[in-house]
Amino acid sequence: MTSGLRALYPDTLLRIAITLPGILHVEKSPAQIDVQNALNSFKVNSLGPMLLMKHLSRFLPSKSSPSFQDIQSPSEVDSSPWHLPSHAVYAMMAARVGSISDNASGGWYSYRASKASVLQLAKTFDLYLQSRGKERAIAIAMHPGTVQTDFTHDYWNGRAMLQPEESAASLLKVLCGMKNGANEGRGKCWDWKGQEVVP
Ligand SMILES: NC(=O)c1ccc[n+]([C@@H]2O[C@H](COP(=O)([O-])OP(=O)(O)OC[C@H]3O[C@@H](n4cnc5c(N)ncnc54)[C@H](OP(=O)(O)O)[C@@H]3O)[C@@H](O)[C@H]2O)c1
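That is the input. Now the predicted structure with NAP docked in place:
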């Protein structure tokens, strides 16, 4: 995967990345846990973002990389509706139900447990990026809100949901406003409103 990407984009630095893998097998009680479904949830929801991180990390800027301002043409700056930060942002889609502190209703064992790992991955990857590139790249996890996609198809009736475009625009706004200082938003999980989802 990495060599194929490098061949396609030999000199390109990754500036904004959002990794999305997520599946849900509903378990309302422990008796409903099925080993193959649970394994699949951990594969897609935990290992998926972990392997994407493994393969994509080398495309993020390090201390010696040229700055984005130096390699961005004025027309690119003018045509972008977003005020892109001067550092790279690597975001992994988590879910509020991956928060242990926020768990008031239980259920969804494999989804909750596998998504909790995404908050841990974001923190651990961010520490790596700090040591490798200081403020040049940050990692965060994100919660998109409850969004009307195939993922929530079974819950569409009678529940207020965001449209995908609305969620995506809000997430991008949060992501582009994320600061890169050691005590700022990096390494944490943020929702579409810009509020922290505590682990
Ligand atoms: N919708 C919500 O309300 C909601 C709430 C909280 C968190 N999330 C999270 O947001 C993310 C996007 O969800 P969505 O609502 O956009 O649902 P979706 O349309 O079902 O998207 C699911 C994503 O997971 C990928 N995926 C599924 N199975 C995979 C597999 N076996 N291997 C690799 N990738 C796989 C899909 O890739 P392809 O497109 O290539 O199939 C797609 O990018 C997920 O991580 C989900 O857990 C969603």
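Helices lie at 2-8, 35-56, 68-71, 74-79, 109-133, 164-176.
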